[in-house]
Known about the structure:
83% of the residues lie in helices and 0% in strands. It is an all-alpha fold.
Amino acid sequence: xxxxxxxxxxxxxxxxxxxxxxxxxxxxxxxxxxxxxxxxxxxxxxxxxxxxxxxxxxxxxxxxxxxxxxxxxxxxxxxxxxxxxxxxxxxxxxxxxxxxxxxxxxxxxxxxxxxxxxxxxxxxxxxxxxxxxxxxxxxxxxxxxxxxxxxxxxxxxxxxxxxxxxxxxxxxxxxxxxxxxxxxxxxxxxxxxxxxxxxxxxxxxxxxxxxxxxxxxxxxxxxxxxxxxxxxxxxxxxxxxxxxxxxxxxxxxxxxxxxxxxxxxxxxxxxxxxxxxxxxxxxxxxxxxxxxxxxxxxxxxxxxxxxxxxxxxx
Length: 314
């Protein structure tokens, strides 16, 4: 068979493989691999088209609830790429990513981890954004698999790479830092979580002092201070959060939530330090929150808050 003939036969088989039923598709792909010279550029282009067709058909299967068929289609696409190009080739990245995301989005973290680890190694120093996203997903899988030390290592390595390739001010780098802090909170390492969130406060303050992101980090840091029984630090950060929310004119319900947290912080400090002035400030915060709830018609929250105020004054 001539080279041109071999290539054309291979392309025909690849096209058929993208549209045939599940059983016939695998046979057709095998025929395609036998019917063309792998070094032919035109054959390589047809492989890219096949990968695209596989992904498109898999998405259709997913939309129809045919998850097993979609899974096998993603697996077939990866197998073809590995057989033609090699398991460590850059051409294996797209089908590898598709299969990893398929498992990750369905919370099948044990399976997702296998492919994310391979993808993580292939992407290093190739695509900063994809590398960072994959690192975050892999860390989540490791945490779900109770491998917290490994999850931390992956996050730290990903953050260092993101800082190098994208910069500290890039949104992806900031998101990874936030995830690292959240990870430390979930595993109960509050000292480390505090350090990360305080670093983020400094970073966000230097970039945009009135950002929603800064308000979110203030809230997370306040929760960490609460876990560490740092009463005064918790009050101080919640005061900053409240002031920033008022300045940025956030919704009343968000203000009420922060006021309740601030009241709780003052109440805890009043109990610990036996300070009547702090107890009075707790009541003032609760009263402001109560006013918002009543004006918003949020009667259940208002009733719960009244009960807490009664316990505080008892």
